[in-house]
Design goal:
Layout: E1 2-5, E2 12-15, E3 18-21, E4 24-27, H1 32-37, E5 46-52, E6 58-64, E7 72-78, E8 80-87, E9 98-104, E10 110-113, E11 117-123, E12 128-134, E13 143-145, H2 166-169
Antiparallel strand pairs: 1-2, 2-10, 3-4, 5-12, 6-11, 6-13, 7-10, 7-12, 8-9, 8-11
Keywords: Isomerase
Function: Catalyzes the epimerization of the C3' and C5'positions of dTDP-6-deoxy-D-xylo-4-hexulose, forming dTDP-6-deoxy-L-lyxo-4-hexulose.
Subunit structure: Homodimer.
């Protein structure tokens, strides 16, 4: 598995090795030992799966507050998304910065979203299915979000009129969002 660093420390893109022939392909989408050898140590305990039936569905930017913060390992099994990760750790040298990557069934890329980062994805094609592993359980009382179109973030989404949930329509800007992440240099 190839590990590609991004400008946000701890946020990495993973490229599994796919072995293909005339029948299709085989790949290890997750191998704890391979990731540990690459310095990635997370105990994932749950898999989540979402389907967006239309292109232009935007989910995010989401995160959970401490002590129920989540690390996510995100991939697409059908379709494609523009996936965005934002550093929301107060005092971080990259606070408020973001990275965006295309994850698709074709490129088989995955992205690791550590605790202290908000995550969002915009579907690029209909019937896109996103899978992600998490290292803790969903906690409604700790669930928070940031406005997808926060002008201070300046995210270059591939769409200007996304299809949003009611919840995501009402998210605050990062400056007003409840956030208890403080940069400490540790991304475990």
């Amino acid at each position: 598995m190839k590990v590609i660093s991004t400008k946000l420390p701890g946020v990495v893109v993973l490229e599994p090795k796919a072995h293909g022939d005339h029948r299709g392909f085989f790949m290890e989408s997750y191998n704890q030992q391979t990731l540990a050898n690459a310095g990635i140590h997370h105990a994932f305990i749950q898999d989540n799966h979402s389907l967006s039936v239309e292109a232009g569905v935007l989910r995010g930017l989401h995160y959970q507050l401490e002590p129920k913060a989540l690390t996510k390992l995100v991939r697409v099994v059908s379709g494609a998304v523009y996936d965005v990760v934002v550093d929301i750790r107060k005092g971080s040298p990259t606070f408020g910065e973001w990275v965006g990557v295309i994850l698709s069934a074709d490129n088989k890329r995955q992205i690791l979203v550590p605790k202290g980062f908000a995550h969002g994805a915009c579907t690029l094609v209909p019937n896109t299915q996103l899978l992600y592993k998490v290292d803790d359980y969903y906690s409604p009382e700790h669930d928070r979000g940031i406005a997808w179109d926060d002008p201070d973030l300046g995210i270059a989404w591939p769409i200007s009129q996304p299809i949003l949930s009611e919840r995501d329509r009402q998210q605050p800007a990062l400056a007003q969002a409840e956030n208890n992440f403080v940069y400490g240099g540790d991304l475990s």
